[in-house]
């Protein structure tokens, strides 16, 4: 005596049983309380916005106060060049012009021109002498 179902019918039955099992698993996982799962940290949209804001530099960057994390965001500047920029700033005391960056190994005229709109050099305002202009 042959089986009750044909080969195609058995395949359909197996598919339907698997589909029901997968659906049941999805429903069960959807009902899990996230606070009961160890190590799971949910981030809200405001958390993600705060992270994004902390990564966005204020353009243009002031070469005399920018840190390594801000400098690496400039085109053509990686961690090694960012450290070299900071070292040059230490040696110079401060940058007087963005063109001072040409002294950093690996920064040429083309790289400087690409980053020029993104950088500034702060101006130190000295107090006026009494009675002077």
What percentage of residues falls in helices of 4 or more residues? Answer: 40-55%
Mean pLDDT: 81
What is the CATH H-level superfamily of the largest domain?
Photosystem II 12 kDa extrinsic protein
Distance between the termini: 114 Å
Description:
This protein has a two-stranded parallel ribbon with strand order 1-2. The mean pLDDT is 81. The protein has 2 domains: 7-34; 54-120, Orthogonal Bundle (DNA polymerase, domain 1). It has 133 residues and is mainly alpha-helical. It is elongated, with a radius of gyration of 31 Å. It contains 5 helices and 2 strands.
List the helices and strands and how they pair.
Layout: H1 7-30, H2 45-55, E1 61-62, H3 68-71, H4 79-92, H5 109-115, E2 119-120
Jot down its keywords.
mainly alpha; DNA polymerase, domain 1; two-stranded parallel ribbon; 5 helices; 2 strands
Brief overview, please?
The chain has five helices and two strands; from the N terminus they run ααβαααβ.
């Amino acid at each position: 005596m042959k089986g009750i179902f044909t080969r195609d019918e058995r395949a359909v039955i197996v598919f339907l049983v698997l589909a029901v099992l997968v659906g049941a698993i999805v429903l069960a996982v959807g009902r899990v309380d996230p606070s009961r799962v160890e190590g799971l940290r949910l981030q809200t949209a405001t958390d993600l916005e705060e992270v994004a804001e902390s990564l966005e530099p204020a353009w243009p960057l002031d070469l005399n106060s920018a840190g390594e994390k801000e400098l690496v965001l400039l085109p053509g500047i990686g961690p090694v060049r960012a450290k070299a920029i900071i070292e040059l700033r230490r040696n110079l005391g401060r940058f007087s012009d963005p063109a001072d960056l040409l002294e950093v190994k690996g920064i040429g005229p083309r790289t400087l021109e690409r980053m020029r709109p993104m950088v500034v050099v702060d101006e130190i305002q000295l107090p006026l002498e009494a009675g002077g202009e």
